[in-house]
Design brief:
The complex is a heterotrimer of chains A (194), B (255) and C (94).
Chain A (H helix, E strand, L loop, with lengths): L1 E4 L5 E4 L2 H7 L1 H9 L9 H133 L5 H13 L1
Antiparallel strand pairs in A: 1-2
Chain B lengths: L9 H5 L16 H22 L8 H20 L8 H16 L15 H22 L2 H7 L9 H48 L2 H6 L1 H35 L4
Helix pairs in contact in B: 2-3, 2-4, 3-4, 3-9, 4-9, 5-7, 5-9, 7-9
Chain C lengths: L2 H12 L3 H41 L4 H31 L1
Classes of the chains: A mainly alpha (194), B mainly alpha (255), C mainly alpha (94).
Chain lengths: 194, 255, 94
């Protein structure tokens, strides 16, 4: 298509009609009829479009895509493997953590039970000691009481003798006569016992 | 006639003379054929360079190519077919790149012609998708595929009189044509739009340069060129995802 | 230019040939065909995209799925307008 502008500012489009109809063999028949249908496909264009499309499809299928898809697959596998590895490490970590927690709690329980038994033992021991001490104290108190009673009895007996002697002597001196010791003794005992 | 300008007739904006095998009706090689040739060579070269790169971490060309593969996988295959659709990756990848190259030449200088604005390319691709989804359906479901499509379960028996012809038409006859026409008409419309604005720009510039700015034709041309870049990408995506949807439906016809 | 001369010109053009008549009818019906075919899909795509935007705004995490489905819906809806466009091409240029 060429464009010419005349001096009067008129625009003239000149199309290469003649060449066109001469060169395009498929088209010349239609041009003779004067009707060109732009919707009906031309056989030569169908041929080349099909040829090149099938060539591209075959190349894509067998030559071009396989290495790229293999590369993508490889990368995806690697990422998946790395993710799985990370996942297993995570699992290990979780397991170790739970093990650790279990151990800690077991140890704590054990410590608690040890403390409890120790406390029980200590309590029992203390109770025993207390009982022993109580018994000893009771014994000591009993023996002390006995000794005390003995001492008092002794002292009483001694005092009884001394007081008798003294009273007999004093009465003898007062009345100037020997009093019968034996006879007076019964009177003194009666006085002291009353 | 637009503003007194002669608009080029349709055959002048979509038909191209052969420059190889000029006299052959079957092998005539014109600009459309050359664009389709680029649609083969450019992706092949890109993927070949990317495929030769070794190492686990992609970079440069390989990174780019792998992002295309990821796009096809995540946006097209997984939502429509599922993980088992990965084996159709070569076909869908070929669809996407071949159509995208054929579309994007609409805005590439010295081409300025989407190869998909000719019916030939879209028709071939749609027929490939048609054969592919029927083959997938028959391969995975046997002859029960046709039964499950034509006589869907859960429909009262008398309604088959109505449902079966509709399903036959819509699935096996209209589908490849609507699939092809969707791409073809979009690109042809875009091409005509850009040609219209370009003709306006040229004509008005020749008449009086400031008119272009006054009529906003040149900004309009730029805006529509940018718009057509997006349309090229989306139409390649839509064609590919529709092929994937058809394959997914053939794989699990009960859905 | 008087009315008489205009009428004369119109009368002179009455005997337009059959091809011209067909082309004129084709051109005008092509415009109608595309215009009518664009109404439904225009409303449909607008509604569809609006709903998709609403869905994406409500659940931004599912924006990818919604977008894919939206493109599918647009593709199916748009087919009607595109068939209208093909009819336009056929009427206008064939």
């Amino acid at each position: 298509m060429t464009i010419q502008v005349t001096l009067d500012n008129e625009v003239v489009f000149r199309y290469a009609e003649d060449e066109h109809s001469e060169e395009d063999g498929a088209h010349s028949e239609e041009a003779d009829e004067g009707i060109v249908n732009p919707v009906i496909p031309e056989i030569n264009e169908i041929f080349w479009a099909a040829l090149f499309f099938f060539a591209l499809w075959a190349l894509m299928k067998w030559v071009l895509l396989p290495p790229l898809m293999a590369g993508r697959e490889e990368r995806a596998n690697k990422i998946r493997a790395a993710r799985d590895a990370a996942g297993s490490v995570d699992a290990d970590l979780g397991e170790a953590t739970s093990n650790y927690d279990a151990k800690i709690s077991a140890a704590r329980e054990e410590a608690n039970s040890i403390v409890a038994t120790a406390r029980e033992e200590a309590d029992a021991h203390r109770r025993e000691l207390q009982a022993a001490a109580d018994a000893e104290i009771a014994d000591l108190r009993a023996s002390a009481d006995g000794e005390l009673a003995q001492a008092r009895a002794n002292a009483l007996n001694q005092m009884r003798g001394d007081v008798g002697d003294l009273a007999v002597d004093a009465a003898g001196k007062v009345i100037g006569a020997d009093l019968d010791r034996q006879a007076q003794q019964s009177i003194i005992d009666r006085v002291l016992n009353s | 006639m637009i503003f007194g300008l002669e608009f080029p007739s349709i055959e002048n904006i979509v038909e191209w003379p052969n420059f190889l095998f000029k006299d052959s009706e079957l092998f005539g090689f014109n600009k459309i054929g050359f664009i389709h040739f680029l649609g083969l060579v450019l992706p092949a070269a890109l993927f070949f360079i990317a495929g030769r790169q070794k190492g686990l971490v992609p970079k440069g060309v390989r990174n780019f190519v792998e992002s295309i593969i990821d796009f096809i996988e995540e946006q097209i295959i997984l939502p429509t077919i599922g993980a088992e659709g990965m084996r159709y990756m070569p076909m869908l990848m070929s669809f996407f790149l071949y159509i995208f190259i054929a579309n994007i030449t609409e805005v590439i200088p010295f081409f300025q012609m989407p190869a998909t604005a000719r019916m030939a390319g879209p028709l071939v691709l749609a027929l490939v998708a048609w054969v592919a989804f029927i083959a997938v359906g028959v391969k995975h479901n046997g002859m029960g595929y046709f039964k499950s499509v034509l006589f869907p379960s859960g429909v009262p028996k008398p309604l088959y009189l109505l449902v079966t012809p509709i399903e036959l038409l819509s699935t096996f006859i209209i589908r490849p044509f609507s699939h092809a026409v969707r791409l073809f008409a979009n690109m042809l419309a875009g091409h005509i739009l850009i040609v219209t604005f370009a003709v306006l720009c040229i004509g008005l510039w020749a008449a009086k340069p400031t008119v272009i700015v006054e009529l906003l034709t040149f900004p309009g041309l730029i805006a529509f060129t940018a718009f057509e870049v997006g349309v090229s990408l989306i139409q390649a995506f839509v064609f590919t995802i529709l092929a994937a949807v058809y394959i997914g439906l053939a794989l699990h016809p009960e859905h | 230019m008087s009315i008489a001369s205009t009428t004369a010109q119109v009368l002179a053009q009455v005997d337009i040939d059959a091809d011209g008549l067909k082309a004129a009818e084709g051109a005008s019906s092509a415009g109608f065909a595309y215009g009518l075919a664009a109404i439904g899909p225009g409303i449909g795509i607008g509604y569809l995209v609006g709903q998709a935007v609403q869905a994406m705004a409500r659940q931004p995490e599912s924006a990818g799925t919604v977008q894919t489905t939206m493109f599918l819906g647009i593709a199916f809806t748009e087919a009607l307008a595109l068939i209208g466009f093909v009819v336009f091409i056929l009427l206008k240029f064939v």
